[in-house]
Amino acid sequence: MRKSHLKRFKSKDGIFLIVFKVTLIWYLLIFAAGYLTSDTAAHFNDYKETSSSITVGIWEEELDDRDETDKSSLSFITKGNQNIKACQPTIITTELKNKGPEDMKKESSFDVYYISNGNPEKHGEKLQLSENEGKIDPLKNGGSTTLSFNADKAGVYVFKAKEQAVEDSKLIWSKWIDINCPSENNQPDANNDSVINEEVKPDQQNDEANENNKAKDEKTDTITEKPESTEAKEDTEESKIEKDAEVVEDAGPSVTEEDNKVIEEETTEKEEETKNNQEGEEK
Amino acid sequence: MKKRILKWTNRIITGVLMILLVGVAITVLSTKLTGGDPQLFGYELKTVLSGSMEPGIQTGSIIAIQSVTEGEKSSFKKGDVITFMEEDNKLITHRITDVTSTENGVLYTTKGDNNNADDRNPVLADNIVGVYKGLTIPYIGYLINFAQSPNGSIAFMIIPGLLMLGYSGITIWKTIRQLDDKDKVIDVKEM
């Protein structure tokens, strides 16, 4: 009786032992696994090639630079359109001034536009400048420089520059410079001109000369090729008007309205001058 | 019949337990004595933690690395997969793409099969720990890694321990109850 009871206990103990041993095995396995293994290949690299720019910082100098270029402002100070009578290649010039309030820090550039007849700003072609040309050295506040270009054709030239030496600057245009060669036009016209001039001159010569000197402040035409006397200049201007008129007639429909306007303006100016002179005489 | 099964199960389990105990004891002892990494029949087991060698070696698998002798270190060829020490205690298993011999020894350029570029630094022969011969068991690495984490310890060590304790408690309580009952029965009979 007792034996059987004991056996029953034993079998129960057996199951208990098995469970206990299995648990032990489990622990051993986990320990062994943890003990035996270590990590590897914890390394995953990916390679990509990109190119970009990084702004590391802005240096103080650069800041100054920007400020100063921003604060300079260039403008053409040569007033009035220039009319040059020349048949050889001529150096045309115009004055450019930095009106401040600060110095230019960077150098700037200019372009020259040309059209044989018409409005060079709107319809002119941009001329190819050689490497040395087209540069404006930094100007001090209030300083000025002379831009020059060797013009080898008759026609209307105009200088274009940036108001400030920065990328998105406003563009400024100089007054027009008109080169014409009398010989290109009909010879008789030139003769006519001289006749007209002779007719006008005797009375007004002196006054006109004075008037011209006074008007110089307003009309500072610079003619490098032929620094003629005021008289001679007057001649060229007048003859120019005549010729322009001539051209208008000749060219007919191809001449633009703007051309006409210019000519008209010039003629009215002349007329006014003559009126003034006459008034002066009367007085 | 039931008894015999129980008996055999008991024997087998005891056997397994003994082998494991002895095996682990020997491994731990030998490791402590030699001072190297734990080895099993000349292989080191490594858990793979990244996919840089996929699909050959899966993330989370275990790989067996064969230890190499000094002489073998400089005789690997292009295409062999080696485990090397990149920094202290940082092991990497990658494939050799180029072998260069220099005055200071052999340099191996390595690349993960799944990477699109060579590793930045070539491997000195001296830094090679072992060579992979293709023996890998997937997913076990995850399990081992988990077992070694705090949550894993709770799941794999503490919970089984508590169950074990609970089970033994119940068993003991039952036994005592039965013993008490029998004593009572005997007492009654004797009376």
Keywords, please?
A: alpha+beta, Immunoglobulin-like, 2 domains, 6 helices, 11 strands, disordered C terminus, B: 191 residues, alpha+beta, Umud Fragment, subunit A, seven-stranded antiparallel sheet, elongated
**Shape call of chain A:** rod-shaped
Tally of individual helices of chain B: 4
Q: How many beta-strand runs of chain B?
A: 7
Order of helices and strands of chain B: HEEHEEEEEHH
Measured by residues with Cβ under 8 Å of the partner chain's Cβ, the largest interface is: A-B, 38 and 65 residues
CATH topology of the largest domain in chain B: Umud Fragment, subunit A
* CATH architecture assignment name of the largest domain in chain B: Ribbon
Topology:
The complex is a heterodimer of chains A (283) and B (191).
Chain A (H helix, E strand, L loop, with lengths): L1 H35 E4 L19 H12 L2 E3 L5 E4 L4 E9 L9 E8 L4 H4 L1 E2 L8 E2 L7 E8 L3 E8 L8 E3 L3 E4 L6 H29 L14 H22 L5 H26 L1
Parallel strand pairs in A: 3-11
Antiparallel strand pairs in A: 2-4, 4-8, 5-6, 5-7, 5-9, 9-10, 9-11
Helix pairs in contact in A: 4-5, 4-6, 5-6
Chain B lengths: L1 H33 L8 E6 L13 E6 L2 H4 L7 E7 L2 E13 L2 E7 L11 E2 L3 E10 L2 H9 L1 H41 L1
Antiparallel strand pairs in B: 1-2, 2-7, 3-4, 3-7, 4-5, 5-6
Helix pairs in contact in B: 3-4
